[in-house]
Amino acid sequence: KKLFPHTKFHSHSQSSIHTHTQHSSTQPLNQGETTNTNKPMSGRVFCQFCKGEITTPYVRAFNMDWHREHLACKCCGKNFSDGTEVMEGLDGYAYCKEDYIETFAPKCHKCKEPIIGEVLSAMGVSFHPEHFACEICNKKLGEVYYPDDNLKLYCEKDFYESQGLVCKVCEKPILVGQLIALGEKRYHVEHFVCNFCKTRLADAQYWEQDGNPFCEKCYIRLFG
Predict the structure, then answer these.
(1) Contacts by 1-4 with C-beta closer than 8 Å and gap 24+?
(2) What is the pLDDT of residues 134-192, one digit of tens each?
(3) What CA–CA distance (Å, rounded) separates 220 from 205?
(4) Phi-psi sector, 112: left (phi>0), alpha (psi -120 to 50), beta
(5) Residues 6 or more apart from 203 whose CB is under 8 A from it?
């Protein structure tokens, strides 16, 4: 017999995934059950889909009765004659639990898997709580986090390091003002000094040795 996976029905039972700033949950709907007896006092049961009388074992779901072959998951086509859980999608169609989760649960931006239970939302995307962490050091992040252009998250230190904006000398972010670059190293202007005598070199001529800056006098003295 032909299945009707696209059977849409309406009932007063509702289910939704509640996505909040801090958490969300998936609430299952009525569980489908196969029944042989449970007939109304009139002794007659009618299928919600075809409106025909049901005279064989049938499925009761969402406070309605169905021929086994007339209620199936919209995605996979599985019917619910074995008593497995029936979920009503946000679009009003029947789903098995697996397809309901795959279709309606928010997806974690990092691992791309559905989120069941608590979800953290930021920048318009969702995360498992354990995945709301720094991309480099894996430190859990709170209200303060630093995203890059691809919405990857970082703690303050690793964000500025990933952007090449951490001073080689003080190891603090270069937030404002000018910076001086020497190879892959970055310096606050006030921290760009001779590696030996510590004379400031921001407005002076300098020489490089092994990736470090030196004033002329120290360079000649040390390296001839």
Answers:
(1) 1/69, 2/69, 3/69, 3/72, 3/77, 3/79, 4/49, 4/69, 4/70, 4/71, 4/72
(2) 999 999 998 889 998 888 999 988 998 888 889 999 988 888 778 899 988 999 999 99
(3) 13
(4) left
(5) none
